[in-house]
Amino acid sequence: MKRSDFNFELPESLIAQTPVEQRDHSRLMRMDRKTGEIEHRYFYEIKDYLRAGDCLVMNDSRVLPARLMGTRPTGGAVEVLLLRDLGENRWECLTRPGKKTRPGTELSFGNGELTGQVLETVEGGNRIIEFYYEGIFLEILEKLGRMPLPPYIRQELKDSERYQTVYSRELGSAAAPTAGTKRPSVAWRW
Known about the structure:
The protein has 190 residues and is mainly beta. It has one helix at residues 137-144; strands at residues 27-31, 38-42, 61-63, 67-71, 77-87, 90-96, 106-109, 114-121, 127-133, 170-173. The strands form three sheets. It has a six-stranded antiparallel β-barrel with strand order 4-5-6-9-8-7. It has a two-stranded antiparallel ribbon with strand order 1-2. A two-stranded parallel sheet has the order 3-10.
């Protein structure tokens, strides 16, 4: 399976830039697996398709403000997207510009409130970064980080709670949910 298998044309006019006010009024697409027939409904109608014995799986993770904007020692800008907590203040990250974040590169965020050093480049080009800070990392992230939005969403929301699904509980997602009672998202702004 290749990522390109999932490429499809999605007209920009069909992409919501902000979520609907009433979350359960988000669009719901239903496809009949036998006939291939597609119908468009609303999320509050999902109960019409559930039967006794069905299993409904919900992603209850909360999206971290995992996108950090900072600087390199040269003063050049750097963008870091936290992907996976490796423990001991180390994270697997995407960085941009990648060529400017080689092992040994020091990074600074929020006027030095959070700093980091690139330790290594791993398979696929991701970086392992060790972060240095005083206090609680998630509180610093709440203050300095931004929500990771897909590239087709150009408007950031003022209320960061609107990026979460209504049933989110556990911190841990580095990208906005791909489904839920909010706008659809599959990636982050890069």
